[in-house]
Amino acid sequence: MKVFKFGGASLESVERIKQVAQIVQSFPDDKLLIVISAMGKTTNELEKVAQNFYMRKREIAAQLLYNVEQHHIQVAESLLGTRQHPLFQQLQQFFTEAEWTLGEKPLRTYDYYYDQLVGMGELLSTAIVSAFFNTIGLSNTWVDVRDVFRTDDNFRDANIDWAFTQKQVTDKVVPLFNQTSIVIAQGFIGSTDQNESVTLGREGSDYSAAVFANMLDAESQTIWKDVEGLKNADPKLFPNTVNIPEISYGEVIEMAYYGAQVIHPKTIKPLQNKQIPLLVKCFLDKNLPGTVIREQADTKQLPPIIVLKRNQVLLTLTSKDYAFITEDKISDIYETFHRLKVKINLMQNGAITFSCCIDHNPEKIELLIKTLHNDFKISYNESLELLTVRYYQDGLLEELSNHHTVLLEQRSNITVQRLLKK
Asked: Might you give the EC number(s) for this enzyme (predicted)?
């Protein structure tokens, strides 16, 4: 049993979907559980649908949804050569459900409606890929993962009910391999016990695949990407990146924690718990060695690892009455951030100040200010960048920070973080 995950980049065109099929065809003797993300930038487009719906701009939301629908229908027709296939009825059902949501008044939280609309991208892509695979002889079974992954109702970052979900995998998914050697499921989504759709966090398909790998006792999990393997930095942001042949679970968790977009932060734990290796391979050339992620790896051979998070905000709280910001005050501040689902990327406190770096999210920043303004004077700087370098070298650090002002810095013997302003 192997678990494969294909992301949006591997599905962004008809040609790439055919490449995915060729990769799958090269594993004829394996049982494959394949987790698939939304095609291309579909998630971004559906996020715009959700945002406009919640702002009561229904006509714009409906037009954006129509654009997504037409794109998927065109891709499906190009792959299947006809619109008479039952797939098109399945796609229409998904879009009809989304249209019902757009017909409602937004009386619940934005996160709830986000999950009802945005999670549709994975349903569309998997239905299309499954139908295409079947037409070219890659017999497979399509699964709606919302019938398998049970979660709580923490919308946009739902937590999996492991015991219930394990039973569903054992009872509903494992028997499918007696019919076909390939099962196709969605990443990123699940369902509450009230059958409300949820998402597991942005880029959560890696995590979905890891949950399946754990529960199926898979031999390995492979994430197929458009790069030759795991790099020491994002090649779109930095020149001369270096491929990393092997790396430990712990090191990848650190990279993900600091904001690297390589692997979803929750992915490693389900794999580590059962010592399942994670492979990062290139779908453009499956013969490249890629990267192996496992328990033990030689960190002495690692190059400097660079992570850059853009669009950051420095929020500074100052006590109005000059009271010290002691442990109890910090606890109250943390509780507020936790309740409003705001992640702190970097923090520092003085006698009467507490400063932290967070992602730029205007709605949540506004809520933070409303909640905290009675006790604190609040200021913030926007349009910042958070640079993290592990196994740093001072020369490299200065080069990366050149032409920037350092607003905040934290340093250990391994890692440096700098909050930068141009």
From this structure: 2.7.2.4
